[in-house]
Amino acid sequence: MTSNVLPVGVFGVKPFDGQNFANWFFRIKLVLEQNEVLYVITENPPADAKELKTFKTADVKARSILIGCMSDNILILIKDKTSAKEIVDPLSKTYEKTGMKSVVMAQKSWRKMEYKLEKPLQEFLQEFETRAAELRMAGGKLESEDVIHQLLGAMPPEFESVVSALDILCGSKQTEITLDYVRNTLLAEEERILKKEGSQPHNAFSSNRNQGNPFSKSKNVFIC
């Protein structure tokens, strides 16, 4: 285990401010692992004096990383903590929402999402995948197929041809349909739609279409 002093401001992690804990914790664990101190947030101090000294050195480094990646409003909650584990445990309990109620709420939030052409598709995809991650963090079980089906079901009528094409491709069983493939296909279709409409900005599309979304009415869309 190394004891090199860590440079300040090299972590590349946005300070945690109470939002998107799952993403922040994923990144911070990687930083801790890179610095060989990840173990101190899960293990208790050893009894052996020599090992304890090494552990305390690693713990100071871990606390430095954690505190350096938190905003002031979060620091208030952990200022009295004396170890990295004491810092992480209450944050996990507070911000990792688990249990049946949390799963149901996260699932409702995710499944009611529908894409409107008023904003860039990339923004919707990021929000869609963030909510899917929150559902998993709450304890929900999601397979790649579930995410693909739900994403296609969230598309407006303008994307119907893409859904049909993916249906045929998937039915052929010759090509595995991945989320990345579906995402890229939808983005390409968005570009085609914008060109067809004369490259008008997203907010130029009316949010009050007469035609509803034929896919969103059924949230269990199966293309395979």
Automatic annotation (TrEMBL):
Pfam families: Retrotran_gag_2. This is Uncharacterized protein. Residues 198-224 are annotated as: Disordered. Residues 200-224 have a biased composition (Polar residues). It comes from Pieris macdunnoughi.
